[in-house]
Amino acid sequence: MNYFSEFGGSIFKKEEAFYPDYLPENIVYRENELKQMAYNLSALLKRRTGVGTLLWGTPGTGKTSSARYITKELSEEAQFVLPIYINCWECRTRPAVLTTIIEKLGGFSPRRGVGADEMLKEMIFLIEKSKKIPVFILDEMDTLKSDRILYDIGRLRENHSLNYGFIGILNKLEFLNKVDRRIRSSLLQSLIEFRAYKPSELKSILLERAKVGLIPGSYGGDVMGVCAGFGAKREGDARIAINLLWRAGRHAEREGKNRIELNDVESIKENNEPESKINKEEKKVVELLKKGELSFKEIIKKIGKTERMVRNYVNSLEKKGILKKRKEGKTIFISLGKRK
Ligand SMILES: Nc1ncnc2c1ncn2[C@@H]1O[C@H](COP(=O)(O)OP(=O)(O)O)[C@@H](O)[C@H]1O
Ligand SMILES: [Mg+2]
To answer: Atom 9 in ligand 1: which residue has the minimum CA distance?
Structure first.
């Protein structure tokens, strides 16, 4: 008995299991994909360059988790392997990606004004010094501004005699049309599709997560089934299903209950359908953004309202978690989705 245990919640045993960056102990239903990834990386065990791999599929199908999982296993097996994870959504340009890599290699973030070629040299120097073999994981690669950084990585062996591993992650394969053929043949040799989960698969993913994160017996009815169905309707997205269960758990806890019930799930689901709660003008903004990211100025132009009005729509949609902003220089870009 711990003196603090009675102050804990009544639902969660380990709430971290529901955090977006939680890496599950088991990635179920992805055995073939993980096997293929392991095979592609296996050359690194012999200190050679691996088969460049591209994971693709709709959101919430386990791409990021699988890449993190397999590279973690690899670095446990071979301590000279160093996974370097980069989310391209956060660094979209060649210098931005290089800066991140340099920092992860323990270097200092380069001073402003240093050219990208200098940064590349610094990266190569740091890799050589570390005597490690890096595995570059470029997540959300479709948000890269240019394929130049892929070229840099793809030439590491030929130009600098450095071995490496590479995993790129994409939602849509269309991005490949924008990538130089030479890069495709060196970096993206093995394409692995992550298909959407079926409702029954989502349900067992949820049950696994519940075992880790929830107090036994703290959920009733068909809570898992309903959460799974919700994710299944949204292109088999496990993230959405897990998030719904998490929020339903918090709802139950706030209500002072010790069990998540269907009505907790239902009340979260209602709030989760924010599109019904937005006004006509806001809806127009959402429709525009369905085709992809736009700058604030472009939205104003397309909506044909004053800057101030559009700013109000955008801020209100942001508060509701429907869209997110990002700044690049002085330009504000807006896209659908919650800020991570
Ligand atoms: N096969 C799986 N087994 C367990 N958890 C999974 C599985 N697939 C996805 N998840 C969970 O679902 C969420 C989304 O997965 P993620 O890897 O981020 O998907 P993607 O990168 O394809 O969008 C994460 O919380 C992850 O832990
Ligand atoms: Mg991902």
So the answer is: 62
> Do β-strands 165-170 and 323-328 pair in parallel, antiparallel, or remain unpaired?
unpaired
Element (H, E) at 125: helix 116-130
* Tens-digit pLDDT profile for residues 233-250: 999 999 999 999 999 999
What is the token pair recorded at 292?
A: 């992809």
Nearest ligand 1 atom to the CA of 57 is 22
* pLDDT category of residue 269 using cuts at 50, 70 and 90: confident
Q: What's the CATH fold of domain 275-336? A: Arc Repressor Mutant, subunit A (1.10.10)
CA 66/CA 64 separation, integer angstroms: 5
Architecture of the domain made up of 197-272:
Orthogonal Bundle (1.10)
Q: To which residue do tokens 């391209």 refer? A: 88
Please name every residue paired with 190 in a beta bridge, in sequence order, or none if there are none. 53
**Side-chain half-sphere exposure of 168, counting CA atoms within 13 A:** 29
Name the pTM for this structure: 0.81
Closest CA to 233 of 273, 174, 264, 293: 273
Beta bridge partners of 253: none
Ligand nearest to the CA of 68: 1
